[in-house]
Design goal:
There is one protein chain. By secondary structure, this protein is mostly helical. The chain contains 15 helices and no strands. It has a domain of 89 residues. α13 runs antiparallel to α14. The relative contact order is 0.05.
Length: 413
């Protein structure tokens, strides 16, 4: 039970933190709404000014409580727009602990720039698009039709254009994010420019009212902003790659000071081993603290190696002398057991003194045993090979016994 609580506690802590930040967002929006609500009618008049200047008359309210709810709705949406930096900061503070350092350095500028671009898109719609669109609408009204727009319908129209142009102005941020995550490359985006231009006009048609002016005024900024994002990504992505490579590059370790050449023989031995490997074409990697020996140290090292070789040869010779008698004894014992185990009258076994072909037959048998010994050694059966070697020592001639002794010596060493 305690383990499950320990596992759930971090998730519950994250939920509590999310709840606190959402409450802060709601509180900030409510405070701004309380400040703006007394000025709700003034705010609506400011938003309606582009259309009021073009209308021959005034707006109307077809609903019973529309004059109250429409300014209240505008005040609430205005509160959310004004609180957007604080809202984005709360989201940023919630996800920032789970990001790497280079991701934090990238996300924060993107959040700030995306907010500014969204506000810039709304301003472009209000000051540039609205006057042109409303002039076009009023001018194209049929003769005898008085244009009298409902205030609620006008607010929905304005908010739709605000949202459409605000999202459209986020195209540079979307372009940088796509390139940064590796979803697309800069070359592929450049090659797909004709399709992007067509897509901008299609999006403009879907997000704007059914008039050509608003569609064109949305599609052209989207195209320009795409080109701006493509140009900005050259510097932004390059800077991010440089920062990541700087973080991944390990710091150079300080080089240790070279030690004095105290052990001349060991360093000279290392040098001679390195020279020997060089003669065979192998690359030698010397340690950082390697010091090249002098000529005297090299001669001393070679002399010490010669002395070690002589001592090793003497030890091997003594071991051979000591093992020779034991091997002969083992061979005689095996021959005694061999003759006791098999009857001399059986087929395939002959008396050496009675038959003249016994020696040749035994030599052939011993040769076959030597071949079998080599096969057993290749198979890894050392015990079976050793047993056959003892048979060769008891039955073979001098040359065969010498071969058997050499094989036994190799197996022992």
């Amino acid at each position: 039970m305690s383990e499950s609580i320990d596992k759930e506690q971090p998730f519950i802590a994250h939920l509590m933190e999310m709840r606190d930040r959402l409450l802060r967002i709601v509180l900030a929006v409510v405070i701004i709404l309380a400040i703006l609500f007394p000025f709700a009618n003034d705010i609506y008049e400011f938003i309606a000014r582009p259309l009021m200047e073009k209308l021959p008359g005034e707006m109307i309210a077809t609903g019973t409580i529309t004059p109250f709810l429409t300014p209240l709705k505008l005040s609430l949406i205005s509160s959310i727009f004004l609180a957007m930096p604080f809202i984005l900061y709360q989201f940023w503070a919630f996800i920032a602990p789970g990001l790497y350092q280079h991701e934090r350095r990238m996300v924060l500028p993107l959040v700030v720039s995306s907010s500014l671009l969204f506000y810039l898109g709304m301003a472009f719609a209000f000051f540039v698009v609205f006057p042109l669109v409303f002039s076009f609408i009023v001018a194209t009204a049929p003769e005898g039709v008085t244009v009298m727009t409902d205030m609620a319908d006008y607010l929905d129209f304005v908010l739709t254009l605000f949202f459409a142009f605000g999202i459209a102005f986020e195209i540079p941020i979307a372009t940088i994010i796509l390139l940064w995550t590796g979803v697309v490359s800069r070359e592929s985006l450049a090659k797909g420019r004709p399709y992007i231009i067509v897509g901008a006009f299609v999006i403009g048609m879907l997000l704007t009212p059914p008039d050509v002016i608003s569609q064109v005024l949305l599609a052209l900024p989207m195209w320009v902003l795409f080109e701006a994002g493509l140009v900005a990504s050259r510097f932004f992505i390059k800077k991010r790659d440089d920062e990541e490579s700087a973080e991944e590059e390990p710091e150079p370790e300080p080089e240790p000071e070279p030690e004095p050449a105290a052990a001349g023989a060991s360093s000279a031995a290392a040098a001679s081993a390195g020279q020997a490997s060089d003669t065979h074409g192998a690359a030698v990697a010397y340690p950082d603290d390697y010091v090249e020996p002098t000529d005297e140290e090299m001669e001393q090292a070679l002399d010490s190696l010669d002395e070690e070789d002589e001592e090793e040869s003497a030890r091997e010779q003594a071991a051979d002398d000591a093992s020779g008698g034991s091997e002969e004894d083992e061979a005689r014992d095996y021959e005694q057991r061999y003759r006791e185990e098999y009857d001399e009258d059986e087929e395939g076994y002959y008396d050496r003194e009675e038959d003249e072909d016994v020696e040749a037959i035994i030599e052939d048998l011993v040769e076959s045993k030597l071949n079998r010994i080599m096969s057993l050694r290749m198979e890894g059966d050392e015990q079976g090979a050793r047993a056959l070697l003892y048979e060769v020592l008891s039955e073979g001639n001098e040359d065969q016994k010498r071969v058997a002794r050499n094989i036994l010596q190799q197996m022992d060493t």
